[in-house]
Design a protein that fits this description.
Strand content of chain A: 15-25%
Order of helices and strands of chain A: EHEHHEHHEHEHEEHEHEHEHHEEEE
Number of strands of chain A: 14
Number of helices of chain B: 11
Largest sheet of chain A: 10 strands, mixed
Strand order of the largest sheet of chain A: 4-3-5-7-1-8-14-13-9-10
Distance between the termini of chain A: 19 Å
Number of strands of chain B: 10
Oligomer: heterotrimer
Chains: A alpha/beta (397), B alpha/beta (349), C mainly alpha (85)
Distance between the termini of chain B: 16 Å
Radius of gyration of chain B: 19 Å
Structural class of chain A: alpha/beta
Helix content of chain A: 25-40%
């Protein structure tokens, strides 16, 4: 069985950039993408800040050369854009040359359009074509069809850990010989549905989110899409491919505590991290940087901080990049995977913006500056509603 | 490499709770078919069930039945497939957003609308901290869950896994589907063998399986292979034969093949085309009993597993008029609207 | 005040879908959370919405709920003092 799985390509679109390079430049120049909401009509607009991608759906369609008549929702547009970039980045010309799959993830799916046209379909039959774009599977099929991919295609939806789980499934399928290469990641657009949903849970901040800060008030929602291309050793040798980094380990566990809140001692998070270490055959002290889930909600950061303190004798340098991008839900683990690879490639730790006051309950603080230091292994956490806890470990190539 | 056995099955469907495919007469399919809800009182505390979505209750019930059937206590993974998740709560939340102009909204409907709610509530109910995934990929959502479990039993050190498929009906979604012809219009005939009109007969249900790498005296069947894909690369017959050849079989080695025929005249063309491969094989169908929804193929797997265990293909599920001599190798073929394809190969164990 | 307490009990039962409970089952001073009625953090959020929708009281911080929702008695006192509807 193949031990580590190679990453040969990446594609990303987020509120801090339309390419891997743009995202990297924003991260090292501490340029956040959090702003006021512009593209969605909601009465809550003045009460929240978001990681909104300042590109319209029209513009995205043009960038993708889509015909005027199409049934893409914004989630599908963002996903297709990022997946296309990933495939190009991996130097793939014939998508079906080997056993290739797509494992995407989303939580919003087509809801961003459904909520606009809901109950209006009878007076406006021209909206009816979007009814079939509502479900999660449709966005993945759209991406696969756009790429011309014919093969294993599926969609994972486990809230905020979705893309980590997509990467996990993809890596296992390569390791066990079910696929030669796979495009893995996730996409979510901002929507009135999620803005209102998170508002009812009273975990949205009305200002810039402050992960791991004692006075944190909640999260900023964001939108994004990112995909990695994973390939088997055999295919890499054949194509003499450049390896960007490796997926060395992964773990998924369930907190089984509460539908939306994490347990006090972060049991699910602890188990997921433990599994990832076992899979990677590395020990906690070997981790040089943790890209934490760090949503800046009172509950998550405390729970995650506790879990980290349990599993690490000395918690390594860590930061949450959600102060840059907002919480991009299903796409979060995918964009943070890209940031983890960038950290490995550039020996750089990205700052945890907006941090002022250490949390009273913990004795760990995040990195607040860009740090240049040797990085061989990065751990990335993503925890979703329903107690879904996922951890990925990336290693230098 | 380990094996994958179906050791327990649990189900909530549009048929009665004690429906037996070998004995019972199935209720006639309507255009809209609601599930027959069992009593949840003994299983789920009122404090929990009061805010649970229909899909969550059906899922917990079916999951418990499957585990009990298999005498399985601690699954090492819980994997669920669903086409739309708890869509009724999505509708409730959207309705509230629009009617109240985004005010006075409450969290319960939003929380239940997240796609992995069923898997999460099952984990909570069982206090199961193991691997927990949810697949939401249209008509092969359930086969995605099955594939994941199959791979884990074969290659990871896991022995017991709980999987299931669940979908629920919601009123506005039903009317939207009628608007676009995905569901039949009122008064249209629901005919599975010779459909004349497009559209399906919508239903809901939950079917769960306790899978294990350990065979028991009560094992229903063995899962030999699972393949899912978005589109055929080659012509259909070639690809089907390639899949079978990979498992050292040819079409004539099959004892029964199940089609996911769904009374939609347009989709019937796919089954007519692949019939060339199977026109001498006993054929079965099941959506005339379960109704049609994204994860109805989980019900199909239940029927297939039961007929393998009992070595009997009841008339009620026979699609053509060929009787099997034995039931050792069974193939399930599923698709919807020329996409979301899957093949599941089963064997007597 | 008595009428308000009865009204609150009825509204709590409806909002939280407490199917098996009647107004007579809830005593004024019974704890609502933890051991008494057994409500949880999601119910707290639902009650916060109830205060806003029915009585025009907006709570900025969910943590305030802990004090206010101790019992029907404490809820009634808070509503009487702060209602704008």
């Amino acid at each position: 069985m193949q031990k580590k799985v190679a990453i040969t390509g990446m594609g990303i679109i987020s509120s801090i950039g339309l390419s891997v390079e743009e995202n990297f430049q924003s991260l090292i120049s501490k340029k956040s993408g959090i702003s006021n909401l512009e593209n969605i009509q909601t009465r809550h607009a003045s009460e929240i800040k978001v990681g909104e991608i300042k590109i319209t759906n029209q513009e995205l369609q043009q960038l993708l050369n889509l015909p005027e008549e199409n049934t893409f929702t914004r989630t599908g547009l963002l996903g297709t854009y990022a997946a296309k970039k990933a495939v190009e980045s991996a130097g793939i010309s014939d998508i079906n040359e080997f056993r290739t799959g797509l494992i995407s993830s989303t939580s919003v799916a087509g809801m961003d359009f459904t909520e606009k046209h809901y109950k209006k379909y009878e007076e406006h039959p021209e909206y009816q074509k979007y009814i079939q774009s509502h479900d999660a599977g449709d966005s993945s099929n759209k991406i696969a069809n756009y790429l011309g991919l014919k093969g294993f295609v599926t969609t994972i939806s486990t809230a905020c850990s979705s893309a980590a789980n997509a990467i996990m499934l993809g890596a296992s399928m390569i390791e066990n010989g079910y696929l030669d290469r796979v495009i893995v990641g996730g996409t979510d657009a901002l929507s009135k549905f999620t803005i209102n949903g998170f508002k009812t849970l009273m975990i949205l901040s009305d200002t810039y989110n402050t992960p791991f800060d004692n006075d944190r008030k909640g999260l900023n929602l964001g939108e994004a899409a990112a995909y990695l291309v994973l390939e088997s050793d055999e295919i890499i040798k054949k194509g003499n491919k450049k390896v960007l980094a490796y997926v060395a380990g992964y773990g998924n566990a369930n907190d089984a505590f509460h539908q939306t809140a994490s347990s006090e001692n972060g049991e699910g998070a602890y188990l997921a991290m433990k599994q990832a270490f076992e899979k990677a055959s590395i020990l906690p002290y070997q981790i040089d940087y943790i890209n934490v889930h760090g949503t800046a909600t009172p509950n998550n950061d405390l729970s995650e901080g506790r879990a980290m303190s349990r599993i690490f004798n000395n918690v390594p340098k860590f930061s949450s990049t959600k102060a840059f991008t907002g919480h991009t839900l299903a796409a979060a683990a995918a964009i943070e995977a890209v940031y983890s690879v960038l950290a490995l490639q550039n020996n750089t730790i990205f700052p945890n913006l907006n941090f002022k006051t250490p949390m009273g309950e913990l004795n760990i603080v995040p990195e607040t500056e860009v740090v240049q230091t040797e990085i061989n292994h990065v751990l990335s956490n993503s925890f979703g509603f329903g107690g879904n806890c996922s951890t990925l470990i990336f290693s230098k190539s | 490499m380990k094996n994958c056995y179906i050791n327990g099955i649990g189900n909530v469907s549009i048929q009665s709770v004690d429906f037996d495919v070998f004995e019972s007469e199935a209720a006639e399919i309507q255009i809209l078919n609601k599930a027959q809800q069992p009593s949840y009182k003994d299983l789920i505390a009122p404090a929990m069930s009061r805010r649970m979505a229909k899909g969550v209750k059906m899922g917990i019930f079916a999951a418990n039945k499957a585990l009990f059937n298999a005498k399985m206590v601690d699954p090492q993974a819980v994997i669920v497939g669903t086409g739309l998740g708890c869509i009724e709560d999505s509708e409730k939340f959207l309705d509230a957003i629009i009617e109240n102009d985004e005010q006075f909204l409450t969290p319960t409907a939003f929380i239940q609308s997240t796609h992995n709610t069923v898997a999460a509530q099952i984990a909570l109910h069982l206090q199961c901290k193991a691997y927990n995934f949810t697949y939401v990929n249209g008509a092969n959502s359930f086969e995605s869950a099955l594939f994941d479990a199959f791979m884990q039993l074969k290659h990871f050190n896991k022995e017991n896994i709980l999987i299931g498929g669940v979908d629920e009906i919601a009123p506005y979604t039903f009317s939207m589907y009628k608007m676009i012809g995905k569901v039949k219009q009122s008064g249209e005939e629901v005919n599975f063998k010779d459909p004349q009109t497009k559209g399906i007969a919508l239903a809901e249900g939950a079917t769960f399986f306790a899978l294990s790498s350990n065979k028991t005296n009560n094992s229903y069947a063995e899962v030999l292979d699972v393949m899912l894909f978005n589109a055929f690369k080659d012509d259909e017959a070639t690809e089907i034969n390639t899949f079978l050849a990979k498992n050292n079989l040819s079409a004539t080695d099959l004892d029964v093949v199940f089609f996911s025929v769904n009374a939609d005249a347009h989709q019937q063309e796919f089954y007519n085309r692949i019939n060339t491969v199977f026109n001498e094989i006993p054929q079965g169908y099941y959506q005339h009993i379960s109704g049609s929804y994204d994860t109805a193929s989980a019900f199909g797997l239940k029927v297939a597993a039961e007929i393998i265990q009992k070595q009997q293909l009841p008339k009620a599920v026979q699609y053509n008029n060929i009787e099997p001599n034995k039931i050792e190798k069974v193939l399930m073929i599923n698709q919807f609207n020329n996409s979301d394809f899957s093949f599941v190969l089963l064997s007597k164990c | 005040m008595d009428a308000l307490k009865q009204e609150l009990k009825e509204r709590i039962i409806n909002a939280l879908n407490l199917e098996d409970i009647s107004i007579d089952d809830i005593q004024d001073n019974d704890p609502l959370f933890g051991d008494g009625l057994g409500l949880d953090s999601i119910d707290a959020l639902e009650l916060i919405v109830l205060l806003d929708k029915e009585y025009g009281i907006k709570l900025a911080d969910p943590k305030q709920g802990k004090e206010i929702f101790q019992s029907v008695e404490t809820m009634a006192q808070f509503v009487a003092a702060n209602r704008t509807k």
